[in-house]
Design brief:
Blueprint lengths: L2 H9 L4 E4 L3 H12 L7 E4 L3 H11 L2 E2 L3 H6 L3 E4 L6 H8 L8 E4 L6 H8 L4 E6 L9 E7 L5 H11 L3 E5 L5 H9 L1 H18 L4 H22 L3 H8 L5 H11 L2 H21 L2
Parallel strand pairs: 1-2, 1-4, 2-3, 4-5, 5-6, 7-8
Antiparallel strand pairs: 6-7
Helix pairs in contact: 1-7, 8-13, 9-10
């Protein structure tokens, strides 16, 4: 069975409620509708009427009058709210969530045990760490299962996450590192792109031409890594001829500590994720 048909069958007939219509919530809704989930099987709620009106006009999904109504109409509840609001939202919906419902949280840094404590009763929960490219259907999500989540729940979560990109399952203890690598990761690539454009512009190239060169190079390089499947080290060797221009650039990266800087950046992001989790 293909991934798309498998995903579709896992979601067939399910009523999906989304609380929070921010960027990530909207990306999920668009992806689900594109996956042929019937729009009237998707119910959303957000306190921001402008966001609700915008996604209703685009996707023709159902609009709930309250968060409690949204969850009462849903077999799967997706919590797409800011981490600091999660406890308050769960307090509002806890008694309205159906007994056998699956709850999926994409609130960064809020642990499964914290979510369980908010509900104060056994609930099937799955925690997800998505990333920003989900907004264009090219996201990378990692998820961890709560102690009450079943194999069926896992399949449902995978089907939902496939609506806006790729996914992997990891132990919850790895989610801080996931946050540092793929959650914050897009910014690292954007920074490299920015500096490449600045360098080209500083040496006399028009900015729009530099942007096109850099953006397409980033897209093509990503596709090569995904479709080729070889390690980056091997791919680097394919580009870097001995004594050539790429080798000269790579030597400069090494001289100025590029590799060490990247490693320290990821360590810092992971450490901060742990600190933020501890504050919740």
């Amino acid at each position: 069975m293909s991934t798309s048909s498998s995903s579709k069958s896992s979601l067939s007939g399910l009523r999906i409620g989304v609380i929070g219509a921010g960027n990530m919530g909207q990306a999920l809704i668009r992806g689900l509708v594109e996956k042929s989930v019937y729009p009237q099987n998707i119910c959303i709620f957000d306190i921001d009427k402008k966001k609700i009106d915008a996604i209703k006009k685009e996707a023709h999904v159902r609009i709930a009058k309250s968060s409690r109504q949204c969850v009462s109409l849903s077999d799967v509840v997706i919590l797409a709210v800011k981490p600091q609001l999660l406890g308050e939202v769960i307090a509002e919906i806890a008694t309205g969530v159906q007994k056998d419902a699956l709850v999926i949280s994409i609130a960064a840094g809020v642990s499964l045990s914290s979510i369980d404590s908010f509900f104060k009763r056994p609930i099937s929960v799955i925690r997800v760490m998505p990333n920003m490219p989900a907004l264009v259907g090219a996201g990378m999500s990692a998820f961890s299962l709560g102690k009450h989540a079943s194999a069926k729940d896992r399949k449902i979560a995978e089907a939902i996450l496939s609506a806006f990109g790729e996914f992997v399952q990891v132990p919850e203890k790895m989610l801080d590192l996931v946050t540092a690598v793929s959650g914050s990761g897009p910014a690292y690539f954007f920074l490299l792109a920015e500096k490449m454009i600045e360098a080209a512009h500083g040496m006399g190239m028009k900015v729009d031409i530099a942007k096109k060169l850099v953006y397409q190079t980033a897209l093509g390089s990503g596709r090569v890594m995904i479709e080729n499947g070889e390690d980056p080290e091997v791919l680097i060797e394919r580009v870097a001829s001995k004594g050539g221009t790429t080798e000269a650039a790579l030597k400069s990266f090494k001289r100025y500590g590029f590799g060490k800087a990247v490693q320290e950046a990821i360590k810092s992001a992971c450490k901060r994720s742990i600190q933020m989790r501890g504050n919740k």
